[in-house]
Amino acid sequence: MLLVIDVGNSNTVLGIYQEQNLIHDWRITTDRHRTLDEYAMVMRQLFQLCGLNFDELKAVIISSVVPSMLGTMDGLCKKYFRLTPYVVGPGMKTGMPIHYDNPKEVGADRIVNAVAAYEQFRCALIVVDFGTATTFDVVSADGCYQGGAIAPGIGISSEALFERASKLPRVDFLQPGQIIARNTVSSIQAGIFFGYLGLVEGIIKRMKKEMPQNPQVIATGGLAAPIAAATDSIDRVEPFLTLEGLRLLYERNRI
Question: If I label 90, which of 61, 171, 191, 237 is the partner at 20 to 30 A Cα–Cα?
Fold first, then answer.
């Protein structure tokens, strides 16, 4: 079995692959203060709930946008899994040319998503990942990573509003029935939801104008589904895109 670990700023997503099949997946909070032993305890409980144990693992691959977490995850793998993990980063074979001023600056999650999306669709792409930050990544029709854009995520944007406007309450991220709202909660929801929807549609529209081919737009991440349901700008939602990309990179780099 292969364990894939995607460490994000807010959440860490874990997946277990049996050959090419994702058989289990979990999402836990990313906590920079949690020790490797504490992470091992959480993972052991998740494994046990599914009737698994650490000894069944044959390999681990990690993608992380939180540098301080790499040491924790590396130590966990070596101490509890008795495995040296593959780590997505410079020197790893991706099979995808990176057309970026400094390829080392591209976040691991962005490359992983691009690789997975191109492997599945084999065409020009815009990949939108709704995480702590929302990333927009462009892949050409011949499979080259071309760059993209990074925007504050929905959660960050909402928190900034609640922290700086003391009289406004925190609200759930929901699509209200209409944009001209008649109470404060619905007004905030309308502003956040439709405002962010406009950001997504605007960036996609401008990216398409700069691309020679008409791309497919693929969305992933925790809030991809509600945004995609409200717009024609997104063609498909792939909730496990990052995990699949990690599996592919493991296959391309396994010894």
Answer: 237
Query: Is 109 in the active site?
Result: yes
| pLDDT tens track for 20-30 | 999 999 999 99
The one catalytic residue among 109, 142, 172, 232: 109
DSSP string spanning the chain? -EEEEEE-SSEEEEEEEETTEEEEEEEEE--TTS-HHHHHHHHHHHHHHTT--GGG--EEEEEES-HHHHHHHHHHIIIII--PPEE-STT---SS-B-SSSGGGS-HHHHHHHHHHHHHH-S-EEEEEESSEEEEEEE-TTS-EEEEEEEE-HHHHHHHHHHH-TTSPP------S-SS-SSHHHHHHHHHHHHHHHHHHHHHHHHHHH-SS--EEEEEETTHHHHHHT-SS--EE-TTHHHHHHHHHHHHH--
- What pTM value is reported for the model? 0.91
Domain hosting 18: range is 2-87
Question: What is the domain-level CATH number for residue 110?
Answer: 3.30.420.40
Mean pLDDT, to the nearest integer, of 105-114?
93
Tell me, yes or no, whether 94 lies in a domain: no
Q: Left (φ > 0), alpha (ψ -120 to 50) or beta: where does 219 sit?
A: beta
Same domain, 108 and 82: no
- What is the domain count for the chain? 2
Residue 95 lies in a domain: no
Same-domain status, 31 and 137? no
Per-residue pLDDT averaged across 178-203, rounded? 93
Same structural domain, 51 and 156: no
